[in-house]
Amino acid sequence: MTAYIVKRLIAMLVTLWLIITLTFFLMHSVPGSPFNEERATNETVQKNLEKYYHLDEPLIVQYGLYLKSVVTLDFGPSIKKSSQTVNEMLGRGFPVSFELGIVTLIVAVISGITLGIIAALRHNGILDYTAMTIAVLGISIPNFVMATLLIQQVAVNWGILPVATWVSPKHMILPTLALATGPMAIIARLTRSSMLEVLTQDYIRTAKAKGLSPVKIIFKHALRNALLPVVTVLGSLAASILTGTFVIEKIFAIPGMGKYFVESINQRDYPVIMGTTVFYSAILIMMLFLVDIAYGILDPRIKLHKKEGS
Amino acid sequence: MELRKPHEHHIEPNIPDEWFVPKVKDQTEAEAVVRPSLSYWQDAWRRLLKNKLAMAGLTFLILLIVMAIFGPIISPHDAAEQKLVNQNLPPSSKHWFGTDELGRDVFSRTWLGARISLFVGTVAALIDFLIGVVYGGIAGYKGGKADNIMMRFVEILYGLPYLLVVILISVVMGPGLFTIIFALSITGWVGMARIVRGQVLQIKNYEFVLASKTFGTKTSRIIKKNLLPNTMGPIIVQMTLTVPSAIFAEAFLSFLGLGIQPPLASWGSMASDGLSTILSGHWWRLFFPAFFISLTMFSFNVLGDGLQDALDPKLRR
C-alpha cells in the first residue's frame, strides 16, 4: 500500500511539473509583452516594469524563478490589476468556488445514485425510462443552457429565486442545479448499469435465498459493489464540475475563482492565467489521486501492494 | 422399505421390429442453414434497427447533415445579410427563427452554425481515431516495455485537465477554427488509445491470432485483418461519444470568447451571443442554437448507447 501511494505521489508530482512547464512555455511563446498594448509608457517605466516582473531575464532564469515561486506557493502580482497579487485573488475566489463545487458534487452524487438505483430496481419499467430520459437529457443539455433556462423560468418568470450573486443559501440553489445536472446524469447512468450487473450475481441470489430483506440486499450487498465504478469517475466528474464553474460563475456573477480565470483569459493577464491553471491542476490531480486511493480501500479485490513482494 | 423396480410397471410396447428403419442421412438437409447466417455487422445493424431511441437519434443526425448542407440554400435570406431595420425580430413567417441584433436571419445562421459545429466534432473525432488507434494499437500489440513506456506517457496526459489545456492552447494560439480542432485533438486521442490498447492486449492472445501467426502471417496483416476488425465496436462507440463532447467543448470555448470568431458562426458562439440578450426577451436567439446543440448531443448519446449494445458480441443472439 505504502509503495503504491509513493509511486502515485511521484507520478502526481511529475504531472504537476509537466503542467507548470507547459503553462510557462506556452504563455511565454505568445508574441509581444503584456505592456505592449498599454498607452505609450516611456522607456524607463517600461524597463522598470520589465525588471519588476523579471521579464528582462533570460527565459530559463524566468522559468527557474517561476518554479521557485510555485514551490513557495507565491504566484506573484497580477499584471493587469497591479494592486492585487494572484494569491489574493485565489484566496478570495477559492472559498466561494470550493463551496459551489462541493455542494454541486454532493447534490450530483446523491441524486444521481438515487435515480440510478430506482431505474435499476424498476428495470424496463416506467420509472426506469423516466429516470434514464432525465439522465440523457442531463448529459445532452450544456450547463450554460441549463443555467439560462433556470434563470429565465425560475428567477425571471416565476420570481421564486434570486437571479444572480452569491450571498445566501437561497442564491446557491440555481447555480448548483445548473452545474449538477450533467454529473448527476452521468452518475445515474453508471449506477444503473452497474447495479443491473450486480443484481444478477450469485451472491445476490444467495442473499435472497437466505431470506434477507430487500432493503438489506440492495443497500448492503448490491449497492456497495455497484458503486465502485461510480467512485472511479468521481475524479473526472470533479474536473468537469470545476471547469463548469468558469461558465456558471460568469453567468450568475459569482465572485469565485472561475470568474478571475475567465477575466484573466480575456485580458491576457499571464501571471493570473498561470497561477490559476497551476492551482486548478493541482486540485484536480489531487482529486484523481484521492479517488485512486479510495478505490483501493473500497475494493478488496484490488491489491494496491501487489508490487511490494516482487 | 422395498425399493420399487422401475421396470415392474413398465408395459411392454407392442411395436413390430420392422417399424424400426434407420434414418437415411440426407446430406443437404444436414447442412441446410436453419437461420440465415449473419455477419457481425449485419447482426449489429439488425439489433440497432430494433432500438427505437437510437434510430430516432440516427434519423435526426441524417436530417441535420442534410440541413447543414442545404439549409442555407433553401433559406430565403443570406446568413451574412445585415438589415438593421430587421433588428431582433421574433420568429415569423418571414424569418422562421427570428433575427439577431444585426438583423441577420437566425434560421440561415443556425445551419451555418451546424456546419461548423459538425465539422469541429467530426474532424476532432477523426483525428482522435487516427492517433489513438495507431498509438494504442502499437502499445497493445508490442506489449512489455514499449507498452509500459507508451502508457506511462498516456497516463500523464490523461491526468491533465482536458478543458484547461484546451483553454491554454486557445489563449496562446489565438481563437479560431483550426485552434479549436488542434486543442481538442492534442489531449483527445488519449481515451481512444487506452481503449484500443486494452482491446488489442486482450485479443492478441486469442487462438485465431495465434493460428494466424503460426501460418507466418505478417504483423501488419495481423493487425489489419485480425485485431482491428475485432476492436471496431468499442472504437465506433468511442467516436460517437467524441463528437458530442467536441461540440460541447467548442460551445464552451465560444462561451469564454475563445471559440469561433465572426464572421463564422457556430452554435456555441450563437448561444453565447444570445445569452446576453435573453433578459431583454429575445429568447429565440439563445433558444435555437441551444436547442440544436442539445438535440445533437442527445442524438449522438442515444446512438452511441444503441451502438454499444448492438456491437457488444456478448449480447449477440
How would you describe this protein?
Chain A: Residues 94-295 form the ABC transmembrane type-1 domain. The complex is a heterodimer of chains A (310) and B (317). In chain A, 76% of the residues lie in helices and 0% in strands. Chain A has helices spanning 2-28, 43-52, 59-71, 86-121, 126-140, 143-157, 169-199, 202-209, 214-226, 228-251, 257-266, 270-298, 306-309. Chain A has a domain at 100-267: Orthogonal Bundle (MetI-like fold). The longest helix of chain A is centred in the middle third of the chain and has 36 residues, at 86-121. With 310 residues, chain A is mainly α. Chain B is mainly α and 317 residues long. Chain B has eleven helices and no strands. The interface between A and B is large, with 43 and 38 residues.
Low-confidence stretches of chain B: none
Give the beta-strand count of chain B.
0
Number of strands of chain A: 0
Low-confidence stretches of chain A: 305-310
N-to-C SSE string of chain B, H for helix and E for strand: HHHHHHHHHHH
What is the mean pLDDT of chain B?
A: 79
**How can the largest sheet of chain B be summarized?**
none
Helix and strand composition category of chain A? mainly alpha
* C-alpha Rg of chain A (nearest Å): 24 Å
Annotated CATH topology of one domain in chain A = MetI-like fold
What is the terminal separation of chain A in angstroms?
Answer: 13 Å
Q: Biggest sheet of chain A: strands, sense, closure?
A: none
Enumerate how many helices of chain A there are, as a single number.
Answer: 13
Assembly state of the chains shown: heterodimer
Q: Please provide the ordered H/E string of secondary-structure elements of chain A.
A: HHHHHHHHHHHHH
Query: By CATH's scheme, which homologous superfamily of one domain in chain A applies?
Result: MetI-like
CATH architecture of one domain in chain A: Orthogonal Bundle
How much of the polypeptide of chain B forms β-strand, as a percent range? Answer: under 5%
Largest interface: A-B, 43 and 38 residues
Through-space gap between termini of chain B: 50 Å
Helical content band of chain B: 55-70%
